Amino acid sequence: MKQSRAEIVAFVGGQILPHEADVRAWLRRSGSAAADIDDVIQETYCRLAALESIAHIGNGRGYFFRTARNIAIEKIRRARIVRIDCVTEIDALNVVDDEPSPERVVAGRRELGRVRRLIEELPERCRQIFTLRRIHGLSQRETAMRLGVTENVVEMQSARGLRLILRALSESEARDHSAIGEAHELHPVRKRD
Amino acid sequence: MNSIRSASEIDDEAAEWAARVDARGLDVERDPELQAWLDGDARRAGALLRAQAAISFLDRGRALAGVAPLVTADALKRPSRRALVAGAGGAMAAALVGGLGLWITRPQRLGTRLGEIRRVPLADGSLVAINTKTALDVAMKPRSRQITLREGEAWFQVAKDPDRPFVVAAGTVRVRAVGTAFSVRRADEDGASVDVMVTEGVVETWIEGDPASRRRLSAGSRVVLASAVSPQVAESPSEIERSLAWRNGEIALDGESLEQAARLFNRYNSRQILIDDPTLARERFVGLFQTNEPESFAAAVAATLGAVVSDDGRTIRIGRAHIS
Q1: Which pLDDT does position B188 carry in this prediction?
Q2: Smallest CA–CA separation between B235 and chain A, in Å?
Q3: A114 pLDDT more than 80
Q4: Is B238 helix (H, G, I), strand (E, B) or coil?
């Protein structure tokens, strides 16, 4: 059964994209070059975009790792000069994709901090617009009225903010490493209201 | 190097398209201009999906982190928040400009879809956390604050206001608070039984038309009120905290049977868990999971109890391994 675009987007936003930094870090550890990593990640999203339904994907994180790994291996095999050690290194990397939750609960919480940071670090105008649109859920028109600008300005700034956020999502390696370190401290402190 | 540059150019264009789709509600599959852009390069479809997913990711962060929408109208009947905002139109913008004053007179409908968890601040300063598949009406009046829980479950953190009692109605059950925190849940099976859990302060519960049913519950107590059965009050603060793990998007299992656990997950997901074996269904389980990851639960059950999991996309079946 074909699923709606909205469902697929929501799935990718919730189950795939949050793990992008981890997949990138993992590819980097396996010795892939930065340009190759970008291509592998992009290809992974392309394959997702080609799917009619994502219902068969039980575990987004596991799927992301597996797909990226397959693409990386295909790429290496296609390359003119095959570096055997590269293939074996990727093969040897164990993807623990069915590990149950505690780690991922932490990861989920880490993501919330990340969303906040991503928005906070935008330039002032972008940040205002993202806050009204995404945090308060206003429409483009109401955001424009509220800020006394045209809808075009809101749309342009939204695109600009999104560009910066997409870049931040793929460049957040240093931060993510430190965040993984923090995860262990975070876990026992279960935040309650 | 070339590929990096063009990859990031594609990402930038995709961001523009995603922002446009989001702002104007374009249909990705039908918009001719967008389709032409997509057809120009095979990688663009992936980049657009990623950009749209980033928007969805930011929205998801909001839903989980409990930042509330300023939007407070009829959220349930409409397919999406965006459509809702568009519909509320100019009146809403005017109300925003003039502060929140206009909101308190009109009852608001708040709701969640399957698997969705929201936190919404109310006009009086109270906060409501709304669990999956829930509908409730909020009416802020000069002398009272009336909430009607139509279905599902919600947790309320009530702002103190002795002049305006805060009353939650769930069927014939009433729960009244002055300044406190508590949750009310209508059972999905019959709708007649109502589960009240108090996390702070004191609440008063009663059944409409039955003055003798009035009772006071303090923090850490839980009562299930059903019309037929006389209610039992239980003191179990830690149990309550665990039952309210959904506020963090979590399911905390501590000795529930697999059958009960499956029912919990099934409240949040269209992909239903089915325990195929009656003896397995009675096994007890401990663990902390995310509400939207039934497969993690299934995998954990498989690993610890030696069960076999099959997932056809709609149903996750957990059964015994067959010894042949």
Answers
A1: 58
A2: 20
A3: no
A4: helix
